TrEMBL record:
<dbReference type="Pfam" id="PF00578">
    <property type="entry name" value="AhpC-TSA"/>
</dbReference>
<dbReference type="InterPro" id="IPR036249">
    <property type="entry name" value="Thioredoxin-like_sf"/>
</dbReference>
<feature type="domain" description="Alkyl hydroperoxide reductase subunit C/ Thiol specific antioxidant">
    <location>
        <begin position="2"/>
        <end position="80"/>
    </location>
</feature>
<dbReference type="InterPro" id="IPR000866">
    <property type="entry name" value="AhpC/TSA"/>
</dbReference>
<dbReference type="GO" id="GO:0016209">
    <property type="term" value="F:antioxidant activity"/>
</dbReference>
<dbReference type="GO" id="GO:0016491">
    <property type="term" value="F:oxidoreductase activity"/>
</dbReference>
<protein>
    <recommendedName>
        <fullName>Alkyl hydroperoxide reductase subunit C/ Thiol specific antioxidant domain-containing protein</fullName>
    </recommendedName>
</protein>
Length: 104
């Protein structure tokens, strides 16, 4: 939700946001309607390769993907990442914008 509030800044910087969730597949419309998210949402099952390939699956033994954010560079490489320390931990939009400025 915080990233959505800064969408104009991300758009100006030509930064694309993609949310990936392993929530119940009935959740996409529910999440989008509750949060007014206006960037792409990818829903995948918890047992797919996506969370595991980014090293964010089952970090707390709960069978869930941790809340994480990755900045991917123009070559498709991970330039920066923030992996949640617990289920309620999310990186701030301000921190993301600082990292983007640093990576320029």
């Amino acid at each position: 939700v915080e990233l959505q509030k800064q969408k104009k800044i991300f758009d100006k910087e030509n930064i694309q946001i993609l949310a990936i969730s392993t929530d119940d597949l009935k959740g996409p419309s529910d999440l989008a309607s509750k949060t007014d998210i206006q960037f792409p949402l990818l829903f995948t099952s918890a047992d797919s390769d996506v969370p595991d390939s980014y090293g964010v699956f089952n970090l707390f033994g709960d069978g869930l993907a941790s809340a994480s954010l990755f900045l991917i560079d123009k070559r498709g490489q991970i330039a920066w990442k923030s992996i949640g320390e617990n289920t309620g931990h999310f990186v701030t939009a301000e921190k993301v914008l600082q990292q983007i400025d640093f990576l320029k």
